[in-house]
Design brief:
The protein is an alpha+beta fold. It has two helices and four strands. Strands 1, 2, 3 and 4 form a four-stranded antiparallel beta sheet that branches.
Length: 102
């Protein structure tokens, strides 16, 4: 289909970047975003990843329709990070999962 000619819709391009992501279910509220951000940052504090604060802050990704029941919703919170060791695999997925689930 042809795109709508609506001036309120804008497409922005972002440069490639590395993000740390934590998935969470339920409704996205300010309190929930704050809680999930705190949990993600606490895990990252224990790694060799540096959280970059370049003004973008935290990205909240929501994948479901507003009519999806809360316990079926899939959301993610993401922060831009940089590996301070130079090793692309500084934190394994298994190690990160174990820290998040504790």
């Amino acid at each position: 289909p042809a795109p709508l000619s609506d001036d309120t819709v804008k497409i922005e391009r972002f440069p490639e970047r590395l993000v740390a992501v934590k998935a969470f279910p339920g409704l996205v509220t300010e309190d929930e975003v704050s809680r999930q951000k705190k949990a993600l940052l606490s895990v990252l504090d224990e790694t060799d990843m540096n959280v970059l604060d370049n003004g973008d802050g935290v990205s909240v990704l929501q994948y479901n329709s507003p009519f999806t029941i809360p316990w079926r919703r899939r959301n993610e919170i993401a922060v831009v990070v940089q590996d301070s060791t130079g090793d692309d695999e500084a934190v394994s997925e298994k190690d990160a999962f174990e820290k998040w689930s504790s």
